[in-house]
Specification:
By secondary structure, the protein is mainly alpha-helical. The protein has helices at residues 2-21, 36-47, 51-58, 62-69, 77-87, 91-117. The protein has six helices and no strands. The chain is flat, with a radius of gyration of 22 Å.
Length: 128
């Protein structure tokens, strides 16, 4: 009897832990887009590094780094790899930020076009 009680308790604990590590399916769709440059700026601030220091480490023109930080230029695969070497943050992280940013911009443009046409589904506003 004691063993079956302990087994049931263990089963419940394992079931709870399994639920805790299952991936969460998020349907959050923000109505704003954050350029990857904002994250780059925060990373530089956290590391106590200036844009000039980053320019030296990656060997890119100051205009390029400043353009990325200001959100005027995108992060391509080469830049992501250079950022990885200079900052220790994986290139995949920078690539994913850029991809998510571009997808959000595209979705927001489509929402605006659909609003004009009067056909916006509520799930496109992140409330679905």
């Amino acid at each position: 009897m004691l063993i079956s009680f302990a087994n049931k308790k263990l089963e419940k604990e394992l079931a709870w832990r399994t639920r805790m590590i299952e991936p969460i399916q998020s349907t959050f769709k923000p109505n704003y887009a954050v350029p990857p440059g904002e994250t780059l700026k925060e990373t530089l601030d956290t590391l106590g590094m200036t844009q000039n220091e980053l320019v030296e480490r990656v060997g890119r023109p100051h205009q390029t780094i400043n353009g990325v930080v200001s959100g005027k230029l995108s992060i391509n695969a080469d830049t992501a790899l250079q950022l990885e070497r200079a900052l220790g943050v994986p290139a995949s992280f920078w690539n994913n930020l850029e991809t998510n940013y571009q997808q959000t911009l595209a979705r927001l443009r489509q929402v605006e076009q659909l609003k004009i046409a009067g056909r916006v589904h509520r799930s496109w506003h992140g409330r679905g």
